[in-house]
Design goal:
Elements lengths: L2 E9 H13 L4 E6 L18 E9 L4 H8 L12 E5 L4 H7 L4 E3 L3 E5 L10 E5 L11 H11 L7 E5 L5 H8 L4 E5 L3 H13 L6 E4 L9 E7 L2 H6 L1 H6 L1 E13 L3 H8 L3 E3 L3 E3 L2 E8 L1
Parallel strand pairs: 6-7, 8-9, 8-11, 9-10, 11-12
Antiparallel strand pairs: 1-3, 1-4, 2-3, 5-6, 12-15, 13-15, 14-15
Helix pairs in contact: 4-5
Length: about 290
């Protein structure tokens, strides 16, 4: 079946109401996307956040009377007769298959490869992490993850204890284990992320060295290495928690940071961490160092 996609730019104040109007006019699905590439902090449990500039996207059947629907929308006060929109056809595809076909094995640093579980590994002698992201974030394609993977590849992980704070799909936890870590503790607010991490650990034969926890159940410990690939907001808000996991002389790496946010993050962590030079990949950055 072919589809039509109606895009309307608005603000977070009106996004929900416009979404409801699209649904009332026959939209089969409504999604909300960032209209201006604005970073979004990790929401707290049960909290729904929208970007200040939000694009509301309605999905309609190809035979929908869009001229009539748009005329009805134009009568709403929050839109008005001259509201701006974009209407475009959406090709009917197997989107999951499309994504899988375009997720290829990737190398990070000298030794480490991240390989989709449905593809053959390019180098059987490399350190290969077999990954099925499932419902959780983390494939290695995003610069924030790539920055952390390259950092891990450059560290001697032998017999290290590691905390992966905000583990997502478990990609960083698995990389640490495959690179020689003795034990990894994965922590995430999303139970589906913990499930994905455990499933990926089983796929890689390292489940016996991995433990996962929700924040309310997280253990008290001090690790040799702490990785936190989240966003600058939570990194600042949870600074004491994150640094508390790192033992004296332990290593800490932080990502999910925009390049212009590096100075703020470094200022917040400098009292606990002897900082290395930050690393930049496009608009994203990595901050790392050793705990005093």
């Amino acid at each position: 079946m072919a589809w039509l996609q109606l895009r309307i730019n608005t603000t977070s104040e009106y996004a929900d109401a416009i979404g409801d109007m699209l649904s009332a006019n026959g939209s089969q699905a409504v999604t909300y996307v960032d209209a201006k590439d604005t970073p979004m902090y990790e929401p707290k449990p049960g909290e729904v956040l929208l970007w200040p500039d939000t694009q509301v996207v309605g999905l309609f059947k190809a035979d929908a009377d869009m001229k009539r629907i748009i005329a009805r929308l134009a009568k709403a006060k929050i839109l008005g007769p001259d509201f701006k929109y974009k209407l475009e056809p959406l090709e009917d595809k197997d989107w999951e298959r499309e994504w899988m076909d375009n997720f290829h094995p990737m190398q990070f640093g000298e030794r480490l490869w991240i390989c989709p579980s449905w593809r053959d590994v390019p180098d059987p002698n490399a350190v290969n992490v077999m990954l099925d992201p499932g419902l959780a974030f983390g494939t290695g394609t995003h610069p924030t993850t790539a920055l952390c993977l390259r950092w891990l590849d450059g560290i001697d992980m032998t017999d290290k204890t590691v905390v992966d704070f905000g583990c997502g799909s478990g990609i960083l936890a698995l990389a640490a284990l495959k690179l020689g870590a003795k034990r990894v503790i994965g922590i995430d607010i999303d139970p589906q992320a913990l499930q994905a991490t455990q499933e990926n650990a089983r796929r890689n034969g390292v489940e016996d060295r991995l433990d996962v926890f929700l924040p309310e159940n997280q253990p008290t410990l001090e690790a040799d290495v702490v990785v936190a690939n989240i966003l600058s907001g939570p990194l600042l808000e949870l600074r004491e928690v994150i640094t508390g996991y790192c033992k004296s002389d332990g290593l800490l790496v932080l990502s999910g940071i925009l390049a212009e946010q590096v100075e703020t993050i470094e200022s917040a962590y400098a009292k606990d961490i002897s900082l290395d030079p930050s690393a930049i990949d496009g608009e994203w950055a990595r901050v790392s160092g050793r705990k005093h």
